[in-house]
Specification:
The protein has helices spanning 16-48, 54-76, 82-106. By secondary structure, the chain is mostly helical. Keywords: Membrane, Transmembrane, Transmembrane helix.
């Protein structure tokens, strides 16, 4: 009689669990770093750029955040979940930039689209 082969998950050693926890923790830190960078950029734009240029700088900030996210996720070195981590990082950054944009518009930022 032949027996069914064991699933591959059964071959994972018990010591792998702390490694997975560490990897997930580092992924969350990298995602949080992108969100923190977005917040810092919005604050810098609000304090440094004039109302005529704030919305231009928001788009430049998003472009920089895409590059930062790509770099951080490539430094991770794990292909599994790359798209998920990349999308989550940029979704949070986009929400932060959108909130900043609304505040800038309420404070009188000018956009050539609305003129």
């Amino acid at each position: 009689m032949t027996t069914a082969p064991e699933p591959q998950d059964a071959a994972v050693p018990e010591t792998a669990a702390p490694e997975l926890v560490r990897v997930r923790h580092l992924s969350r830190i990298r995602i949080g770093l992108v969100w923190l960078a977005a917040l810092v950029m919005v604050l810098a734009i609000g304090f440094v750029a004039g109302p005529a240029r704030q919305l231009t700088w928001v788009s430049i900030a998003m472009m920089m955040l895409v590059l930062i996210t790509g770099l951080l996720q490539l430094l991770d070195g794990r292909p599994a979940g790359y798209i998920h981590r990349f999308a989550l990082s940029l979704a949070g950054a986009a929400i932060i930039l959108a909130i900043g944009t609304v505040i800038f518009m309420l404070r009188g930022a000018q956009s050539w689209v609305l003129v």
